[in-house]
Amino acid sequence: MKYKVKLTVIDKKLYPELQQTYCADPKAGPCPCYNVGDVFIFERNAKKDDFWHGGLNTLVETKADPNTVAGGPKMPHCSELWDAISRYIYAGLQGGSIMKGWMKEENTMIACCSDGTRPVIFKIERINEEE
Q1: Residue 97 has what pLDDT?
Q2: Is the pLDDT of residue 66 over 80?
Q3: Residue 92's pLDDT is what?
Q4: Distance of alpha carbon 120 from alpha carbon 69, whole angstroms
């Protein structure tokens, strides 16, 4: 069995009152790095190691210009997101349980980046494939 991990942006939140109170730019707005519906596929094998490269060029679906999306061909994933989800990506790529006992399916996790004024919410799925 070999494994891939699919990452999908399922929502974006914005808390303007928190940005106005705490941010250097009180009108920073929503996260510019991701869009609802963006899809990424991570692989880790002898030919390709997306984990090691911070997810650079894992973007497989977007409605935006791919060059402006983190994880696209021009930039790796945002460090705030990567810090929050990299352990789940790694576990999934090794065939491990992502969140057994917490989620309905052990190969799925809902997570978000740690930007408290404009979090982006992701669905992480381990994909099992026959070799």
Answers
A1: 87
A2: yes
A3: 94
A4: 13
Beta bridge pairs of residue 37: none
User: Among all chains, which residue has been given the structure tokens 């990506």?
Assistant: 89
Place of tokens 């869009």: 35
Are 97 and 84 a contacting pair, CB within 8 Å? no
Q: Is residue 42 part of a domain?
A: no
Nearest to 61 by CA among 86, 93, 36: 36
The predicted pLDDT at position 46 comes to: 86
Which residues, 6 or more positions from 47, have their beta carbon under 8 angstroms from its beta carbon?
Answer: none
Contact yes or no for 119/29 (Cβ under 8 A): no
pLDDT band for 130, please (50, 70, 90 cuts).
confident
Pair 123, 10: CB distance under 8 Å: yes
| 77 in a structural domain | yes
Strand 108-112 and strand 2-12: the pairing is unpaired
Residue 107's domain spans which residues?
2-37+47-129
